Amino acid sequence: MPLPFIPETITVHLGPPGSDAQNVTLSFPDYIKNVASSEIYPTWPESAIRANIYAQISFALNRIYTEWYRSQGYDYDITNSTAYDQYFVQGRDIFDNISNIVDEIFNNYLVRQGSVEPLFAQYCSGTTVTCDGLSQWGTVALAEQGMSPYEILTYYYGDNIDIVRDAPVSPNLGSYPGEPLRLGDANEAVRTIQLRLNRISANYPAIPKIYPVNGFFDQNTENAVRTFQQVFGLAVDGVVGKATWYRIAYLFTAIKGLSELSSEGLSLADVTAVYPEQLELGMRAEAVRELQYFLAVIGNYYEEVPILGSIDGIFGQETQEAVIAVQKLFGLPATGIVDEPTWDQITSTYLSILKALPPGWEDAVPLYPGRFLLEGIRGDDVSQLQTMLSTLSTVYPEIPEVPVDGIYGPMTRDAVLAAQALFGLQVSGVVGTPTWAAIASRYMTVVNGSRTAAEQYPGQALRVEDGTGGQA
After folding, report:
1. pLDDT of amino acid 467
2. How far from 194 is each of 146, 187, 206, 426, CA to CA, in Å?
3. Phi, then psi, of 341 in degrees rounded to 5
4. Contact 141, 29 (CB under 8 A)
């Protein structure tokens, strides 16, 4: 699921939702300049103007990020009806000082701490209309008292808000990937659908949970899609076309309240390891292998937790003892059974270790980055994966060499598929903890095996060019 961005353009419906009115498309900064010039006065104190513009930017970005209107079948991002959205007057004059401020801060927006979606920054005049959010005229009084824009915003929205600055600008193409998603697909769009269906299933338990959330459209994902389509009266084909995609998006936004001031919030935890099922002694599953990997890392940093001898996907006595140790360490019931609180504690502890690693930790076995890697993803963790695969390709001819560019493209996918087949893993092209652990351990074996101590024979004769075309 992508992080928010500043759209190059925004489409405004010049009337209330569903009305027979014209749509206009303009640049996002020009839209904010128009709204600000229509909603507030240029003679207000600058701190008040800036606080209002931050709210206007965040409100508009929330509508775009949650696809509030497009997920309901409309062909626009926002309306100009103040009963629903912000005031916009097509063709109006723009005040110079407001234009200058918007040019400076149009790519900054508000978020609730711990959430990623732009804040649904509700506001009203504060005189003729009052609301739970910002009072436009109230900001004037606060600015005259010497409050900064951020202090004004926290006065109305609470102390737990942050300002995201210098957000990237991207085309506003909508979230639908352009082609239907079906069995066998593997990409970030599939991962988004899996995350959203899992959240929706908490309110509609007939929809089965999907595990793992790895971006691979497997049979579990198809079953969940079919059930969703059946529950909500869509054509039941197990394929995520445009209608199913946006119906899922609309319900996800509505259930989490992302377009409300009191939003449940979309946290970074929504895109990390998801609780699979209750795990206990005697089980064999990929989820157990993932659990063992997390426990093995934790055991290297917490002496109270025994270090696992193997990661084999079998929940044996050794795994149970490590689980009990974690439960005791963090004050959970010491049952040896991995329920959801235990799973959340284990995964959060692993991620905290990952974030706290000091400079130079790369000399040890590279740790799983905490997210599934699949085609379309970019980042330093992809670069690390590519480095490991390229190194392994010098020892394992079955694995093709890949460029280290941080982009998980077809070449990286082919190398992952080859490694998974070679190492006896599920061949999916998706890198979860088992695949990462297998690649990383063999990578370190190759790296450590190639190192030589001072004065140690390197294993092959060294030759030096003598500068005359011969060899010394």
Report:
1. 40
2. 48, 11, 15, 19
3. -60, -40
4. no
| Helix ranges (DSSP H) in 257-336 | 286-299, 317-329
pTM for this structure?
A: 0.57
Tokens in use for 136? 């436009």
Residue 6 DSSP one-character state? E
Supply φ then ψ for residue 50, to 5 degrees.
Answer: -65, -40
pLDDT digits over 361-377, tens only?
Answer: 555 678 888 777 877 77
The residues pairing with 402 across neighbouring beta strands, listed in sequence order, are none
Residue with more model confidence, 88 or 202: 88
Structure tokens at 27: 């640049």
The CA-based dihedral angle spanning residues 336, 338, 339, 345, taken in that order and rounded to the nearest 10 degrees: 100
Q: Please name every residue paired with 420 in a beta bridge, in sequence order, or none if there are none.
A: none
- pLDDT for 269 beyond 80: no
Provide the residue type at 228 as one letter. F
Q: Pick from 343, 272, 346: which is nearest to 302 by CA?
A: 346
Contact 195, 251 (CB under 8 A): no
- Sorted by where each starts, the structural domains of the chain and their CATH numbers stand as 6-170 (no CATH), 188-271 (1.10.101), 286-356 (1.10.101), 380-450 (1.10.101)
pLDDT of residue 308 exceeding 80: yes
**Which ranges of 257-363 does DSSP label H, i.e. alpha helix?**
286-299, 317-329, 340-356
Given its phi and psi angles, is residue 122 left (phi above 0), alpha (psi -120 to 50 degrees) or beta? Answer: beta
